[in-house]
Amino acid sequence: MQLNDEQFFDYWTKNSLKQKSSSRAFMVGLSSGFAIGIGVIVATFSGWFPRATMVANSKMSSVVLFIAILLISVFIAIMYRKFKWEMQEQRFLEIIAKKNKQQ
After folding, report:
1. d(CA 92, CA 14)
2. C-alpha distances in angstroms, 25 versus 28, 67, 78, 84?
3. Cα pseudo-dihedral 73, 74, 79, 82, rounded to 10
4. Which of residues 88 and 41 earns the better pLDDT score?
5. CA-based angle 28:33:38, to the nearest 5?
6. Which residues neighbour 75 within 8 Å (Cβ) at sequence distance 6 or greater?
7. Which of 27, 32, 38, 55 is 20 to 30 A (C-alpha) from 75?
8. Cβ distance 25 to 85 under 8 Å?
9. CA-to-CA distance for 8 and 90, rounded, in angstroms?
């Protein structure tokens, strides 16, 4: 659902600081990161690329893989939350600029 400019302006003036630390955006990013991690695991252990599977089985620790996927997921979650907030802040600033230009 897309808010029109006036509705968004009112919403963002009230909720910008709350949205900066929103857990919803963090959870969306975290689930995206885990999806990428599961994709890496599936690609590694499916036998799609036999040499990669062979190297992974001989040199890779499952703990290191788990920690790497966790770190990647948290990084994506943090960056996604920042990205969403910055996009909304940019829209807010554009609305302010448009209002100033009309006056």
Report:
1. 12
2. 5, 22, 9, 7
3. 140
4. 88
5. 125
6. 33
7. 55
8. yes
9. 12
Tell me the one-letter amino acid at 58.
S
Rounded-to-integer distance, Cα 48 and Cα 40, Å: 11
How far, CA to CA in Å, does 20 sit from each of 59, 63, 88?
41, 32, 10
Tokens of 52: 């990669």
- Residue 65: what residue type? L
Phi-psi region of 61 (alpha: psi -120 to 50; beta: other; left: phi over 0): beta
Q: Which of 13, 41, 23, 4 has its CA nearest to residue 84?
A: 23
Per-residue pLDDT tens over the stretch 26-82: 888 889 888 988 888 888 778 777 887 777 778 777 788 889 888 988 898 888 889
- Per the CB < 8 A criterion, the answer to whether 27 and 103 are in contact is no
| Residue type (1 letter), 21 | S
pLDDT for 1: 53
Mean pLDDT of all residues in 11-40: 85
